[in-house]
Amino acid sequence: MKYAICLLLFISASCGHSPFRGNEILGADEFVMDSYKIREGKFAILELEGKSFDPLPLDALEEYSLDPTNTGKIELAGLVNISSLPADGKLRLFEALSLAKTSTRVNWFKSYLTRNNQILPIDFSKLVNEGDMSYNIVLKAGDKIYIAESSAAAIMVLGEVGNEGVLHLPNGYINLKMALAEAGGISYFGDKAFIQVIRGNLLQPKLYTLHWNHIMRLPNESLLLIPGDIVYVASTPIAEWNRFITQLLPTLVSVNLITKGGSPSGVLLP
């Protein structure tokens, strides 16, 4: 709702301005370049969103000795079946996830681990799905692991498609062809020359414009969407931004896309 209020203030303050020219008007080439960056994983995606994280501590993968009289616990929350595990100086993240018996409805992209109230740069998807052991850190007492649900990351597909709505992204991204297919395809009234992807802050977004012919020729891995993206297929391309946002606002508020998946541990959800 806070996001919606900001949008309303922006719209009222900018009424009468010239038609939207975009903070960044981009085409297929730029979309493909960003897609190859997205394939690098979670932190490349977060970088596109303007977020950055420090690297893992140098000793994060090293086991350590623990005073048996001063043991602690690792806390777990979200889609897990246990709430804590003992810290013994040897327990690693992958083993902890196995012991936690996580649900099949997990969103690894939005899952995270905090230490001393700071998020550690761990790509859970690469660890669990790709076996990247560079993220298999040794856990410490006080660590908090949060396992997100599948709906914690999503995109919207709107306009002249079979079924407008939200698509969940359990792995952090989806290709554009699949997104359009899951939305029921482009309707008869949709302009296939102006398939638009809105990315980032809606007050100053990136706006990619793609032609259906480009989409059909390009491989799936060159056409990736990330959480928060809006795919918009209209009978005519977006020209008047204020009018477009005014029409879009009720949908954004109703599905609460931007704020969905908030963190229960008091830290900013990556």
Secondary-structure blueprint of this entry?
Layout (H helix, E strand, L loop, with lengths): L1 H13 L9 E3 L1 H11 L3 H7 L23 E7 L5 E4 L5 H8 L5 E10 L2 E2 L4 H7 L13 E6 L4 E6 L5 E4 L5 E2 H7 L12 E5 L6 E5 L1 H6 L6 E2 L4 E4 L7 H15 L15
Parallel strand pairs: 1-11, 2-6, 7-13
Antiparallel strand pairs: 2-3, 4-5, 4-6, 7-8, 9-12, 10-11, 10-13
Put the structure in a nutshell:
With 270 residues, the protein is an alpha+beta fold. It is built from 8 helices and 13 strands.
Structure description:
With 270 residues, the chain is an alpha+beta fold. The protein has two domains: 2-45 and 153-255, Outer membrane lipoprotein wza fold like (Roll), CATH 3.10.560; 72-150, Roll (Outer membrane lipoprotein wza fold like). Helices cover 27% and strands 22% of the residues. The chain contains eight helices and 13 strands. The strands form three sheets. Strands 1-11-10-13-7-8 form a six-stranded mixed β-sheet. Strands 3-2-6-4-5 form a five-stranded mixed β-sheet, with helices on one face. A hairpin with a 5-residue loop joins strand 2 (72-78) and strand 3 (84-87). Mean pLDDT is 80; it is low at 1-22 and 255-269.
